[in-house]
Design a protein that fits this description.
This protein is mainly β. The protein has four helices and 67 strands. The radius of gyration is 29 Å and the shape is globular. The two termini are 35 Å apart.
Length: 913
């Protein structure tokens, strides 16, 4: 397979040959303070996804619906040697109980392309707890099994690679380890009390209006300090209070307006650091408790003090590269700035049984009938390191298409995810559940509620992903398709994505120092929503976040710049606000520590360089108010006002990536931001911007791929319309029998009057009717019409990104401008002469895609042309509906063809006869 990072390296080499290379610096230098950022160039697999060509076994579909296909594939994976490929032939495979790599490392499972190789799952595999479709898992160690642990006693500073530990027994070079520390909270419980959350003993008592709190370990608080109390059985104890007395190192008192409270066991207390803040007390700091973490008491964790009850949700995953006495060297270095001895940092590991260098490529995995639930995943990378999914198509996942669990340097690239069984909660494309330094790049999410969900993640890059049609229909709310933190997440980079918005919530946890660079955040979805129209949500306790060079909002959807209230609509920014149920106080530190620089928004109507009076638009656009926090908070320095408005193209890439070239043009590089400067002379696609906001936002490659890839006819159904009515903003179609469900997205066409036509999200169904929101009455139904669904794409990355996928066959892309439509024809016939001009042997050629604008061909694709010998010519005929163009119009026909066999030096020509 083609190596993405090799392409970037070659581009960089060409540049450095012509220019003197300066000393290496981070691309974000001079814009972000180092305390807010990390080295995002190290995200993903060092050197890129490997190109493997040795096939250990080829598996063909059996045509049976029993366990034959599953057994054949599992056996092939188990019998491969390191660096080899299990090649799945084109066809449909039935997988009755999921697939597993079985702890085998360094193996690639590869299909013939997601439009050719389809795995149909009718059951799931137990992947160390959750049941999943494809399991890539190390053999031992999971979130509730911490068999090996030691203390971490030195080397806490950001950028440090050498750590001092209590013991290196059981450690060796190459070992994957997890760093953690206690959160900024401790349990309420007498030292001689119970376990877990102190059940059955009293951590909170009241006498008159004086409350006494007893903690499981010394708290370190002082009189006059404000602390939070939560998680108790009685709501009267919950809230933020000022300490009036400290009777002992493990107790304190405050005055409460409520009286007569019974003694309460359990609960937690916390102090607000004023800066980076890690706490998960439900209904005090977060909506719900964090999910993934070690806890004390734990007899296997030497960092747990006697009697301590606490949680440890902050993680970084590293590889040990060397051991010298009680010092270990790690890769990559420490990323966050808040590691400190007072929070008892430690390390733990699972042995040497991480799965490494396993890959899944070029196939579809259809999860529609797998029987999954809200805890089921599509592909599950668990205890995995440097593994990948590339050019895969996931259809109808349960909880998520890909789950990255307790894993690092995973790559999910060039893929397409459609739909989920759920429609509101727990419906994700790529979800992280404990991960470091992962790369999620150039993917498409369609009809997935949340495309990217980052949980307990750090140092990762989520870049150039395109998401649309969330499928979320709770009160017609807009659901941001990028959710940037569940549990505690920090120092991730979100770059170049095109999404309805981003959400830094405080449901399961908080975060810090996330960077959002050159994204198109629309504050709207397709189909359009009417409520909660916000481009960026940054809830309480998500501090020191950075937003640079983004394009925000949609004209008409957002009419106001900023809100600090809960669940607003029509704002570019929602900052500081409480949790979903008003259980958390507003947090002004969020906006005070928020860096905003060079963003364009549709409310201001200008780029905001809001640092000081020397900046452009200081009074007119910025209202003479700075949006650069030059005063530091705990663990994060102030950010100096950037001295220039010149911005790098990327914070992690050194050159334009290989996937940037598409069959429909090469977008400007960069495609989004205040400095976009498209050049037709340089071969860039300078058509109308994707959304028309002052030319600052153009289609990204994944968006071009989505717009121009035909619908998969093997999935789409056409249902005839027999009638239509409209009432109070809702259209209802009478249809032939249908199996549509609420939240499905459908396309209505051919109805008279045409006002019923368009793409909509279903609000209600019966066996013979379907309803959807339609603001304006289109008139009385006259005749005709069709409902088409689902709009699953016939996706294959090799049909979108020619430079990134040359190894799948020389991709022939020919644009013919001289086609003319003739009136009175049912179809337009394009006759193509295909000549083999350069191979040393015969080539099997097929037309893999043919586009006229974005209109699908009437004939089925792929269209096999047959074997073409060197120097010979074959003819192919491609039909297009007459409705593709007006009579006499001239259009561009794009033909995409692939070859197999013969020499890689083959060449072809395509021409009209």
């Amino acid at each position: 397979m083609w190596n993405r990072k090799l392409v970037e390296a070659l581009c960089l080499l060409a540049i450095t040959m012509a220019l003197s290379a300066p000393a290496f610096t981070q691309n974000w230098a001079g814009i972000l303070d180092p305390s807010r950022a990390t080295d995002w160039t190290q995200a993903g697999i060092p050197g890129g996804i490997p190109s493997r060509s040795t096939i250990c076994q080829t598996v063909a579909p059996s045509g049976l619906t029993d366990s034959t296909d599953m057994d054949d594939i599992d056996a092939a994976i188990a019998n491969c040697d390191s660096g080899e490929v299990v090649q799945l032939e084109a066809g449909t495979y039935t997988i009755t109980q999921g697939l597993t790599f079985g702890g085998v490392s360094n193996v690639t499972l590869r299909g013939a392309g997601p439009d050719k190789t389809k795995l149909i799952f009718t059951g799931l595999y137990d992947c160390g707890g959750p049941r999943v479709d494809i399991c890539v898992m190390g053999n031992e160690g999971w979130a509730d099994n911490y068999a090996r642990s030691t203390t971490w006693t030195g080397g806490y500073a950001q950028g440090t690679s050498t750590l001092t530990v209590g013991s290196t027994t059981g450690l060796s070079a190459g070992q994957i380890i997890i760093l953690d520390q206690r959160s900024d909270e401790i349990a309420m419980c007498p030292a001689s009390g119970g376990i877990d959350n102190c059940s059955g003993v009293s951590g909170a008592t009241e006498s008159g209006s004086t409350v006494t709190i007893t903690t499981s370990i010394p708290h370190g608080y002082s009189v006059g300090q404000t602390v939070g109390v939560g998680g108790t059985a009685y709501a009267g104890y919950r809230g933020w209070f000022t300490i009036t007395a400290v009777p002992s190192p493990a107790s304190f008192q405050y005055t409460d307006a409520a009286t007569g409270l019974a003694a309460s066991g359990g609960g937690y207390v916390t102090e607000d650091t004023g800066g980076d803040y890690l706490s998960g007390i439900a209904n005090l700091v977060t909506e719900e408790s964090p999910l993934l973490q070690r806890t004390c008491p734990d007899s296997g964790d030497p960092s747990c003090a006697p009697g301590e009850i606490s949680r440890r949700p902050q993680w970084e995953i590293k590889r040990v590269t060397a051991i010298d006495g009680n010092q270990i060297t790690i890769d990559p270095p420490i990323e966050l700035t808040n590691w400190r001895a007072s929070r008892s940092p430690a390390i733990w590991w699972t042995g040497k049984n991480y799965d490494t260098m396993d890959g899944i490529e070029d196939l579809t995995y259809d999860m529609t009938a797998d029987g999954g639930n809200t805890d089921s995943a599509g592909i599950d990378f668990k205890n995995a390191y440097e593994c990948w999914a590339r050019n895969v198509r996931g259809i109808k996942a349960s909880r998520n298409d890909i789950w990255i669990v307790q894993s690092a340097r995973i790559e999910v690239v060039d893929s397409y995810f459609f739909g989920n069984k759920g429609s509101e909660d727990l419906s994700y494309g790529v979800e992280t559940y404990g991960g470091s330094d992962n790369l999620v790049e150039n993917n498409i999410c369609q009809h997935v509620v949340t495309c990217v969900m980052t949980g307990q993640a750090n140092g990762s890059v989520y870049a150039y992903n395109y998401s649309l049609d969330s499928g979320y229909y709770t009160s017609d709310w807009l659901m941001p398709l990028v959710n940037m933190n569940h549990d505690y997440s920090f120092m991730n980079l979100f770059e170049g994505n095109d999404s309805s918005g981003v959400d830094l919530d405080n449901v399961h946890g908080t975060g810090a120092a996330e960077t959002v660079f050159r994204n198109r955040l629309r504050g709207q979805d397709t189909p359009a929503k009417t409520n909660s129209l916000v481009a960026v949500t940054d809830n309480a306790y998500n501090r020191a976040e950075s937003f640079v060079a983004n394009v925000l909002g949609t004209p008409g959807a957002e009419t106001r710049y900023q809100s600090t209230g809960l669940n607003p609509s029509g704002y570019i920014w929602d900052l500081n606000s409480q949790a979903e149920n008003y259980s958390v106080r507003n947090d002004p530190v969020v906006s005070e520590s928020l860096l905003r620089w060079g963003n364009y928004d549709t409310v201001t109507g200008a780029v905001r360089w809001c640092g000081d009076s020397s900046d452009p638009g200081w009074s007119s656009s910025c209202g003479s108010a700075s949006e650069v926090p030059n005063t530091g908070i705990t663990f994060f320095n102030g950010n100096e006002v950037p001295s220039t408005t010149t911005l790098p193209a990327s914070f992690y890439l050194s050159a334009q990536p290989a996937f940037w070239q598409t069959f429909w043009g090469t977008p400007p590089w960069p495609a989004i931001g205040p400095d976009v400067n498209c050049s037709s002379a340089a071969g860039e696609d300078c058509n109308t911007p994707a959304d028309g906001v002052s030319g600052y936002s153009y289609y990204i490659p994944a968006q071009l791929c989505e717009l121009n890839t035909p619908v998969d006819s093997s999935y789409q159904r056409a249902i005839s319309v027999a009638g239509a009515t409209w009432s109070g903003g809702t259209a209802t179609l009478s249809t032939a029998p249908n199996t549509l469900q609420k939240f499905d997205t459908l396309t209505v066409s051919g109805v008279s009057p045409a006002g019923y036509d368009g793409t909509f999200e279903v609000t209600a169904t019966t066996a013979t009717s379907v309803s959807y929101a339609l603001p304006t009455n289109p008139g009385t139904y006259a005749a005709s019409g069709t409902v088409n669904y689902p709009n699953i794409l016939l996706y294959n990355a090799s049909n979108c990104y020619p430079a990134a996928y040359p190894a799948s066959g020389v991709l022939l892309v020919t644009t013919l401008q001289s086609l003319t439509f003739n009136p009175g024809s049912d179809v337009y016939v394009a006759t193509l002469n295909i000549t083999n001009t350069g191979s040393t042997g015969a080539q099997n050629v097929e037309i893999a895609g043919a586009w006229l604008g974005v209109t699908q061909t009437s004939g089925a694709l792929p269209l096999a042309v047959g074997s073409i010998a060197n120097g010979s010519q074959e003819t192919a005929i491609v039909d297009f509906p007459a409705s593709s163009g007006a009579a006499g119009s001239h259009v561009a026909l794009i033909i995409v063809a692939t070859y197999t066999g013969g020499s890689s030096s083959a060449g072809f020509q395509v021409a009209l006869p």
